[in-house]
Amino acid sequence: MRIVIAGASGLIGTHMSATFRPAGHQVISLVRREASSAAEVQWNPAAGELDPKALEGADAVVNLSGAGIGDRPWTRNRVAELFSSRLDSTRTLTNAMRQLDSPPPVFISQSGAGYYGDAGNTVLREDAPQGAGTLARICGEWEAAAAAAPPGIRVVTPRTAVVLSRKGGALGRLLPLIRLGIGGPLGNGRQYWPWITLPDVSAAFLFLLESDVSGPVNLCAPEEANVNELVAALAHALHRPAALRVPGPVLRFVMRDLADELLLASQRMEPARLSSAGFTWQHPTLAQAAEWVAGKE
């Protein structure tokens, strides 16, 4: 397949490109700087600029663009950037598709577990309602923008869970502390964090590209875990203690709204659609995932 990826330079996009190419697929990356090879095409999503010819002949478009959710404090300007970086890129892609006589047949546009807000202990399948809060609004508008793709295009919006990787990503700050033996659960630790390993994210996207699944897809592992269990599994795999809990009030004082929505919110997601479609996880259990993160697999 010829796959055009927006946001290919991030954690997921880099791994995805490195996975797709050896599998025999041609990957074209959309970049904001000047293109440096035939495998790159320059675009400017903030200005809505993309030559439609970049998508001509593509079998699929994958949209991973968006400013980092937890990279900076949520000031008013930063929240506006979280919205615009996602909506501008998605609208630029769908507008370019509309200008083609034969647009790419598949559009996979990233979303997130934040769609569900803080749902407590409720089991969340793809038909669960949208939650409340900034992340839920971002994901809802993001998915709506993707759904505006031209008729006939199969649109998939993966609601991606916390991505477990060996460095960077959602555990970029917590994992080094656990390795040093000074990490621990956040808040009371009873909040559910849906999770998935980085290799399974790339494999799931490739599976979705080749399947007939459309609409929202919960992109998480089949084994659920709360923060206490997640941190304990990682600490066990790394042979480190994990007793230094960070209380919720401290997190809220330091991180404000970001703490409640990103760290203390609970999303007990179930990958119902991936399971029913026959996807096979490389790391279906938390123990296997922790071993992979620790480099012991």
Terminal-residue CA separation? 30 Å
Mind telling me which CATH architecture this is? 3-Layer(aba) Sandwich
Residues in helix, %: 25-40%
- SSE sequence, one letter per element: EHEEEHEEEHEEHEHEHHHEHH
Q: State the domain count.
A: 1
Find the CATH topology.
Rossmann fold
Shape: globular
Structural class: alpha/beta
Name of the CATH homologous superfamily: NAD(P)-binding Rossmann-like Domain
Mean pLDDT figure: 93
Describe the biggest sheet? 8 strands, parallel
Which descriptors apply to this entry?
297 residues, alpha/beta, Rossmann fold, two-stranded parallel ribbon, 10 helices
Describe what this molecule looks like in 3D.
The chain is 36% helix and 15% strand. The protein has helices at residues 11-20, 76-98, 134-147, 174-179, 198-210, 227-237, 248-255, 257-263, 272-277, 286-293, and strands spanning 2-6, 26-31, 40-42, 60-63, 106-109, 111-112, 123-124, 154-160, 162-164, 195-197, 215-219, 268-269. It is α/β, with parallel strands linked by helices and 297 residues long. Helix 1 (11-20) packs across helix 5, helix 6 (227-237) crosses helix 10 and helix 7 (248-255) crosses helix 8. It has a single domain, classed as NAD(P)-binding Rossmann-like Domain (Rossmann fold).
